[in-house]
Amino acid sequence: MTNTDYLIIGGSAAGLAAGITARQYYPDSSITLIRKEENVVIPCGIPYIFGTLDSPDQNLIPDAPLHNNDIDLVIDKVEDIDKEEKCVKTSSGEVFSYNKLIIATGSSPLEIPIPGVDLENVFTVEKDLDHLNKMLDAVEEATDVVVIGGGFMGLEFADECNKQDDTNVTVVERLPNVLQLACDEVISDKVEAKLMEHGVNVLTNTEVKEINGDESVESVSIGSGDVLDADVVIMGIGVKPSVDLARSAGLKTSGKHGIWVDDFMRTSDEHVFAAGDCAGKRGYPSGEARAVRLASVATTEARVAATNLGGIRQRMEYPIGIFSTKFGDLAVGAAGQTEKDARKLGIDILTTEASACDRHPGKLPECTELGVKLIFAKDTGLIIGGQAYGGSSIGEMINFIGALIQHKMRADEIFTFQMGTHPLLTASPVAYQLTSAAQKAAAELSNSRR
Amino acid sequence: MTNTDYLIIGGSAAGLAAGITARQYYPDSSITLIRKEENVVIPCGIPYIFGTLDSPDQNLIPDAPLHNNDIDLVIDKVEDIDKEEKCVKTSSGEVFSYNKLIIATGSSPLEIPIPGVDLENVFTVEKDLDHLNKMLDAVEEATDVVVIGGGFMGLEFADECNKQDDTNVTVVERLPNVLQLACDEVISDKVEAKLMEHGVNVLTNTEVKEINGDESVESVSIGSGDVLDADVVIMGIGVKPSVDLARSAGLKTSGKHGIWVDDFMRTSDEHVFAAGDCAGKRGYPSGEARAVRLASVATTEARVAATNLGGIRQRMEYPIGIFSTKFGDLAVGAAGQTEKDARKLGIDILTTEASACDRHPGKLPECTELGVKLIFAKDTGLIIGGQAYGGSSIGEMINFIGALIQHKMRADEIFTFQMGTHPLLTASPVAYQLTSAAQKAAAELSNSRR
């Protein structure tokens, strides 16, 4: 039996972040991380294996941070957690006892009950190197690829597969718009147009009825009655938390929501924490269960969990959800509530938009239009959501908007915010998109109260 | 006599932002903007006239926002403000009466008493089209350009002039590092190296003794005893507030600090506001006078002033100062206190750094190293400063850091901040620079208290 102070199960983003954090907060402790994969795939990087990167091997999480932080790495599969004895048993028969345990077992692809999902060359997206190599071979040989699901992962797959020579790609999305769970039309419309400009066929408001073929997939039947040719089908419809291990151990779990955790990321056993896709989440702003299964949220939860290993120091806030992606020269981002969702929740809102070049003067080369849409609660003036489109600066711009939401800023505080501006890096200070959009909201809210 | 509700003097960033804001908050008012220039130069864009842009005409503030916001534009020079009668008189003999007045007269270049400053082809940087055209002609013909001052404007001039064929450029800076008033060595060293890589000669710790020549400049004598060849000298050493008009009107002013204003941007006369470079400033965090004369601060002040025209609604916070710039592929930014300044103020601080690629995996093309340095007050854990270097996302990254400072976030709040990450737009969630640097600080602060 190996004794360790802090044991982590899972080596993806959450497990790794938990290990690094535990080392920083508990410099003298022994930390062990057990994972089943020899090599760990970067989850968000998977679509880029199919176009931009040369092979799955280029999309691996390095082990250097584990070694640099003196974390014992064990490649093995945990079969059982004994929470009374505070130990785990692995496939190879090893036993590891712990003082505290963090479960970071992640998630696996959702399966939908469409006839034909078991045909050859119908792929879910597994974070597994062999699976991805097989999938890549199939895509490289395919003439027609159908992606089911127009969320972030589905669209990224579509845009990347479309970079293969002589490959036709179609995305099929059940909802009226792509990215609908995270964005309003201001973003969805631009993304749909950009993908179509790239030659991707985007079908929204479209149900998949059946996947057809003999041994291997040959076509996909959709709601309109049309049949789409398909040598490869990729299911990009989301993930479900991996809770089997936790459930067998007697921890409180839900197959849909994940392992139950409190605000400190503790499970129903005070010595066991959970973090990442396997852990339950409560959504901003209402606190109801919401599946924000993002690597960024996973690492935040892992940091909170690891900080609390030696005593409660940190609380996990409701994930507001900060998304970003890029298709060709168009980057988009979203944070917090969409207009649609806020209205559904019954929040009385005000939305404003502003756009301008991302350099000034506009005569400078490489100017790209950057636009934002901000969503405010009318009664308080608080920002509750924001979306942005533009060039490569969108990744940080949406984090900036996320900070405003998380820190509960009002429209009048944002419009008098002292942003920095520079000709080569941002819009002019007069036209700066965030302050301009906030100013419209602040003026309208202020005048409506006079 | 023309009667107007709200009169604005000055048509640069502050005047324009004041006009737009006044229109949004006071939709039914009459607004008049008087400026002396037919065309208004974009101040921050001036250096780019000398390399990246084709001519000064490409660097003008458009008048469309004035027309679109129904603001009466008068091209004329205000000679006198009569604050008892609440009216102004112009060079052409016109009289405009106002209900409230905003003075946004800006600044003019500082002059330093070096022998030879009056020689031909020794230029200060005036926001004037004729002056800039003359300066551009001289630079285009020059073989040797010497820039005095290694602040943002000076370095931008140097890097741009260096893009002219067969032109040697030298920057002379009195202090030990370039950008020293805004940045620590982590930034200054990288900028100096980048400029030298571009072929710019950077001399720090170097005093200018004399500018030599007969009619036109021929050389510059520096402290070491060396003499630098020079056909053109550019003085990039800062600005002084333009307060003559306000002083003549009997408003409280200081030649160094500018027109005195309260926290609502009101001058010593309750009907007169001032905003932008001409207005006095108090610096973050101590509130002492500090010359943060940036277009971004100017527009924030203008927004506050204009919002308050019809009654006090907004307070101006101390400008923390958010700077950014770019030299070739290196962008840098700084916000709040530097380590040096914080130590000078006697603040007990903790600094941490983190760097990573700005994409993930690092095998993706176009990866650029992005690094941050964060400065925390030890007793409270509050972030009081931050600096960053990297690619084009630095413009928004430093605004993000600025938001954290302005909103008084602690290290532990930043390290558990839910940033969004994306392979093509940011570092990985495990390596994300801001959270990583904050985590080091949070762990150290937390452990030091146990």
Can you give me a brief rundown of this structure?
Two copies of one chain form a homodimer. Chain A is α/β, with parallel strands linked by helices and 450 residues long.
What does this structure look like?
2 copies of one chain form a homodimer. By secondary structure, chain A is an alpha/beta fold. Chain A has 3 domains: 2-108 and 239-310, 3-Layer(bba) Sandwich (FAD/NAD(P)-binding domain); 111-235, FAD/NAD(P)-binding domain (3-Layer(bba) Sandwich), CATH 3.50.50.60; 331-448, Enolase-like, domain 1, CATH 3.30.390. The first copy, chain A, is 25% helix and 27% strand. Chain A is built from 11 helices and 24 strands. Chain A has helices at 13-25, 64-68, 129-141, 152-161, 185-197, 244-248, 295-307, 339-344, 394-406, 411-415, 433-448; strands at residues 2-9, 31-35, 72-75, 78-82, 87-90, 95-103, 107-109, 122-124, 144-148, 168-172, 201-203, 208-213, 217-222, 227-229, 232-235, 239-241, 253-254, 258-259, 272-274, 322-327, 330-336, 349-357, 369-377, 383-390. In chain A, strands 1, 2, 3, 4, 5, 6 and 19 form a 7-stranded mixed β-sheet that branches. A 5-stranded parallel β-sheet of chain A has the order 8-15-9-10-11. In chain A, strands 20-21-24-23-22 form a 5-stranded antiparallel β-sheet, sandwiched between helices. The first copy, chain A, is globular. Chains A and B meet through helix 1, helix 7, strand 20, strand 21 and helix 9 of A and helix 1, helix 7, strand 20, strand 21 and helix 9 of B.
